[in-house]
Amino acid sequence: MPDFIGAIDQGTTSTRFIVFNRSGQLVTIAQKEHEQIYPQPGWVEHNPQEIWTRTQEVIAQTMQLKGLTAKNLAAVGITNQRETTVVWNRKTGQAVYNAIVWQDTRVASYVEELSKTGGQDRFRAKTGLPLATYFSGLKIRWILENVPGVRALAESGDVLFGNIDTFLLWNLTGGPNGGIHITDVTNASRTQLMNLETLQWDAEILSLSGIPAAMLPRIASSSEVYGHVAAGPLAGVPLAGDLGDQQAALVGQACFERGQAKNTYGTGCFLLLNTGGTPVQSKFGLVTTVAYKFGKQPAHYALEGSVAIAGALVQWLRDNLNLISTSAEVESLACQVQDNGGVYFVPAFSGLYAPYWKSSARGVICGLTRYATKAHLARAVLEATAFQTREVVESMEKDSGIDLDMLRTDGGMIEDELLMQFQADILDRPVVRPSIKETTALGAVYAAGLAVSFFLDLDELRAKWSVDKTWKPNMPAETRERMYRTWKKAVTRTFDWVEEPGSNP
Fold this sequence. Notes:
The chain is α+β, with helices and mostly antiparallel strands. It contains 16 helices and 23 strands. About 55% of the residues are buried. α9 (about 245-250) packs across α14 (about 440-450). β10 (about 195) and β11 form a beta hairpin. It has helices at about 50-65, 110-115, 125, 135-145, 150-155, 165-170, 185-190, 205-210, 245-250, 310-320, 330-335, 375-400, 415-425, 440-450, 460-465, 475-490, and strands spanning about 5-10, 15-20, 25-35, 45, 75-80, 85-90, 100, 160-165, 180-185, 195, 200, 220, 225-230, 240-245, 260-265, 270-275, 285-290, 300-305, 345, 365, 405-410, 430-435, 465-470. The strands form 7 sheets. A 7-stranded mixed β-sheet has the order 17-18-16-15-21-22-23. It has a 6-stranded mixed β-sheet with strand order 3-2-1-5-14-13, sandwiched between helices. Residues about 500-505 have low confidence and may be disordered.
């Protein structure tokens, strides 16, 4: 058996290929960013061909760094930005339109149209999801209705749909020359087209959405051998794991028991709670999703609180306002002041996700005075992520009846000590950073490794999890609750900023 195993981690802003050893330790890594395309306000796109090119480049670079060959890898797993929607030609491999990113809000009119009969929770009983611009199904519909000729090709099966995992798996296994068209249950659960009970595409929702079944991938488990890499440095290596990024982080954090939860601080912020073998429908603004399904074992489900903008707000501060030159500088700038100076930043750039689900909301900065400086703004940017997380935690505890004793964290922002301490303070409970920080890629590796017996079982994976650092709350209760009340007031200022069609000015 080879000594190493790999993960393709395709995220919203970059693509990475990471090689791990049997201990779950990172051996080597390469990473490349791809362009963020904003054709108009509220629209966010990626070039699928660029993502495929970057994927090939980081694989080659990673293998070269350590002099590895395909024979050194037992398998490869994939984890990906979820909901981001690609439609491409089966014969040429070319996308018919740019990938429509999960943050994109162009389908708001479809949400409104479908909500008129049945309300925002029209599909929730079947899919676990409210009607929102977030999910893939309505993005597919937009492409079918706005790109000439695509609907006819879709009905004949000559164009294919996939989230990024499906697009990469198809290309890795041969593309136009026999590529496998497949996805896993976690990614399928983010389309708003899959029935959570049957784990299959729902014919009624497909009909209502005008989406031909012929263009959809086959739904598989998160851990099985789907096929083998057709060419390149990984030729012949089994592709054996597939998980949406947030579910992958849950697996990477070894949250295999009901009641265990993790929060990923990335482009967005995503808190998942393992609810076991039964889906729990949310009454407090969360979504119900598939956590993972290993081979022929039953699926496990999760409650999820999705926050659209977390690390992306730091990038906005860097790229749009030029207040910092690198994302890492936000912490040192924020540390120049003792508090936020009364400034609160609600980053509803793509509307509000959990627990509000208001697509008409837009970002606001509240509490500005002449006293406020760029350091106060930087602090407000970091605090926004922690406030949004507390809102999700409160909803999650109401829905599940489970009180979180601690919060396991991962993602790029967990290196920010100021943020982690403030998160513990505003939650009033410990926040824990694991020893192995690349938990998203690690989850894909765990899924792939289980499929090819590189890892023995879940007990072996549990034993690999350990704590790097714990932050304990250290804020007076009066201060914590006053700040949280002010945050909630600021959130209300974002509501209904975008006027719905036909509304009075």
